[in-house]
């Protein structure tokens, strides 16, 4: 479903965010993509969803070549970004229908499809409410519905459960498992919660400094002893959440790679600049990229 070879991204200005990543993901897997802040997770996802153009390497995603057929990739994948990226002023149902029609569905087909996903994620009663008026858990379910409305075979989720309470997190895990078990959907997700990775993912990749440093099933990585936290600490030299989003750099984060490490400046260069979930600007940019084939 995903195969990459030496996939790389160096941003203008010289930040080598991803430095030769090889991934192989099978259809119907839930894959967890782990790594400290700034490791290159979002950049990798944005390359795989055609939103960022690789500067090196090749990839096939959902049966289409990333470089020569980005439109083919785009039609078959869904992406829920770290910052959301949905217009939250629109009513939930309308926003979903609009998104479906932007993907080429006729209005009647879009209405039917949207009714289906609203039902699936327990959002039917909320269809007339603006996205901005949803609770955190409802909002994440709306994000999932948004990522799925055009019927992709592969869904990318960037930190889908960050900030949720334990119950809402567990409920979202059930939804994600249901997508794999009920529809054979392949799910590629990032998380900073190692218990989540352990519970949810069939297989894990750990990235650090733009390079894959470990991969395997949660059981393989744990090797029968210890926890994923121990594994992560021993591989990356730090705990996954040393540097929670918004903090000023990770204490003792090594920068042995010679590329940029974590810094306040780095964060200001992040891919979702305005950072505000659902900013219309982000949304418009994403739609434009999806529709117009606008890789950057
Ligand atoms: N548009 C950009 N221009 C320049 N550098 C960028 C850009 N986007 C990301 N970077 C840099 O690339 C590196 C990887 O960032 P990325 O967002 O992929 O990390 P991440 O693993 O998703 O981190 P987090 O866990 O904090 O979300 C960081 O050093 C970041 O500052
Ligand atoms: Mg990220």
Please identify the structural class as seen in this structure.
Answer: alpha/beta
- Which bin fits the share of residues in helices? 25-40%
Alpha-carbon distance between the termini?
23 Å
* CATH homologous superfamily caption: P-loop containing nucleotide triphosphate hydrolases
Number of helices: 11
- Compute the gyration radius: what is it? 18 Å
Mean pLDDT: 82
| Bound molecule kinds, no repeats | adenosine-5'-triphosphate, magnesium ion
Task: Specify the CATH class.
Answer: Alpha Beta
H-E order: EEEEHEEHEHHHEHEHEEHHHH
CATH architecture grouping:
3-Layer(aba) Sandwich
Report strand order across the widest sheet: 7-8-9-4-10-11
Shape: globular
Can you summarize the main beta sheet? 6 strands, mixed
Strand content: 15-25%
Low-confidence stretches: 244-296
Q: Might you state the CATH topology name?
A: Rossmann fold
Q: How many domains, in number, for the residues?
A: 1
Total number of strands: 11
Family: Belongs to the ABC transporter superfamily.
Pfam family, one: ABC_tran
Membrane topology: Peripheral membrane protein
Organism: Streptosporangium vulgare
């Amino acid at each position: 479903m995903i195969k990459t070879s030496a996939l790389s991204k160096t941003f203008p200005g010289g930040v080598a965010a991803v430095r030769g990543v090889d991934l192989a993901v099978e259809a119907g897997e839930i894959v967890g993509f782990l790594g400290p802040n700034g490791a290159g997770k979002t950049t990798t996802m944005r390359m795989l969803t055609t939103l960022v153009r690789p500067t090196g390497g090749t990839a096939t995603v959902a049966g289409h070549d990333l470089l020569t057929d980005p439109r083919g990739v785009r039609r078959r994948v869904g992406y829920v970004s770290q910052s959301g990226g949905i217009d939250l002023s629109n009513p939930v149902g309308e926003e979903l229908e609009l998104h479906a029609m932007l993907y080429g569905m006729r209005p009647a087909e879009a209405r039917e499809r949207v009714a289906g996903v609203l039902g699936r994620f327990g959002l039917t009663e909320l269809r007339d409410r603006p996205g901005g008026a949803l609770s955190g858990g409802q909002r994440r379910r709306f994000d999932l519905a948004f990522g799925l409305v055009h019927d992709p075979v592969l869904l990318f989720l960037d930190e889908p459960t960050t900030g949720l309470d334990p119950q809402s997190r567990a409920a979202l895990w059930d939804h994600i498992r249901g997508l794999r078990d009920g529809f054979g959907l392949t799910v590629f997700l990032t998380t900073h919660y190692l218990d989540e990775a352990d519970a949810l993912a069939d297989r894990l990749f750990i990235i650090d400094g733009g390079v894959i440093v470990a991969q395997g099933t949660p059981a393989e990585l744990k090797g029968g002893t210890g926890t994923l936290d121990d594994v992560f600490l021993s591989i990356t030299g730090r705990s996954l959440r040393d540097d929670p989003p918004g903090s000023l750099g990770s204490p003792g984060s090594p920068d042995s790679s010679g590329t940029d490490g974590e810094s306040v400046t780095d964060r200001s260069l992040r891919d979702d600049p305005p950072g505000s979930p659902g900013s219309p600007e982000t949304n418009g940019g994403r739609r434009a990229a999806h529709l117009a084939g606008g890789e950057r």
